[in-house]
Task: structure prediction
Amino acid sequence: MLKDAVYSYKNKETPLEEVWSPSISLGLPVLIPDSYIYDLSTRMTLYRKAGDLRNSDEINDFNEELFDRFGPPPLEVNNLLQTLVIKNMCLKSNISFIDAGPKGIVLGFKNNFFKNTEKLLDFISKSSEKIKIRPDQKLFMEKKLKNREEKIEQVIKFINKLEGLKY
Result:
């Protein structure tokens, strides 16, 4: 980072945008199994490609490519695709951490910063959901999450609600 900053200063350029990736744990297997794609090199290429996907259209195109080349994706690949959707939502919403377990969802913001704190506090106090701020500045939404579908659905809903509060 220091090298980039010095280079930018010397060349009168704006510093490079910080590259970061959210930590997402849904307690689901997220992989391309070798039983689906046997060739390791092909799997690694597809993982790299998946890591570069930046929006829903690209994720849908990637899903279609997998289907066309290798057949219907197994559950683990579908989990990977859903995690990519959530990852891109997190990047857009400045969410650095999500952990969804059977008792609820823990969510943290990048640098513990939320753009509109007043709206966030108002949302938490008026929410029909049991949401609280933990001492480590992460949000916890208490919600029984029984299965894969509920975890994915509730995480996406939670992020969408928070995204609506930013402005």
